[in-house]
Amino acid sequence: MKAATATLASGQRVASVGNYLALLKPRVMSLVVFTGLAGMLVAPTAIDPFTAFTALLCIAAGAGASGALNMAYDSDIDQLMTRTATRPIPMGRIARGDALGFGWTLAAGSLAVMALFVNLLAASLLAFTIGFYVFVYTLWLKRRTPQNIVIGGLAGALPPAIGWAAAAGSLALDPLVLVLIIFLWTPPHFWALSLYRSEDYARAGVPMLPVARGKKAARRQIFAYALVLAPTGLVPAFIGLGGPLYAAAALGFGGWFVFDAWLVMRERDETQEPAARRLFGVSILYLFALFAALIIEHLMGVPPVATLSFGGWA
Q1: pLDDT in tens, 200-221
Q2: Alpha-carbon distance 279 to 159, whole Å?
Q3: Which stretches does DSSP call E strand in the chain?
Q4: Among 236, 255, 254, CA closest to 246
Q5: What architecture is the 172-305 domain classified under in CATH?
Q6: Shortest CA distance to 40 belongs to which of 161, 133, 154?
Q7: What is the per-residue pLDDT across 60-95, written as a single tens digit (0 to 9) for each?
């Protein structure tokens, strides 16, 4: 049996497993799971392997459900944008109603399993994340305001708090700092994309900042966010979460982020937008480097910078 989409004698198309996987936005899902894992590992309470696996599976399923629902509700504008026109629904590989059923079933299942096998706090945070992404960002903000990604970015920022809650059964200031880092990272990351995809968003009627306020305003906002993000990214090193590897990653990649954001602000080539394309890639490296450093240090037992003393490790 071929993995690709098959065509029935009636002319109806049968979606393949690959089509349904594409609905989950696997690249976004992998980043969500990665940051959720970091939040889980830095929590003060150890978590058993079964609970950890279950929590990460639920975070992945919840993120995938959000992606599927987003694609279903945005299918009308996805078909107008070059970047999204090849998604399963615009291509006719999956019916919009099937995607909605798949997304809501996956969402309900992830929440039920999280509540039954992990804890209610983690399940509540996951429910808030899915609901915020679908109802607040996708259905309300995305088509109405250029601040859509600023406010809506909270949904994508919460996985470290979910991971922490899964391990500790409570929340604290520490995971909220990680949430804040992702929250501040999201606008410049997506505005860099929307700078060189502005025609797509304009065609679809989505008021992303470069479309609604102009590219010059978007460039200034990107640089302003970068200036706030870089020092915020260093905070975990001084509150007992990050060690020397994390501090080096936050300093080095944070400086790179600011420099490239400055180049975006000075960009003159508004046709190809090379600086914005480069910043989009750098922004992904930045977030990956910070959370990878947290994961590596905690797996290796490296003490955080806050425990350092002049005599060595405290």
Answers
A1: 999 999 999 999 999 999 999 9
A2: 23
A3: 6-7, 13-14, 308-309, 312-313
A4: 236
A5: Up-down Bundle (1.20)
A6: 161
A7: 999 999 999 999 999 999 999 999 999 999 999 999
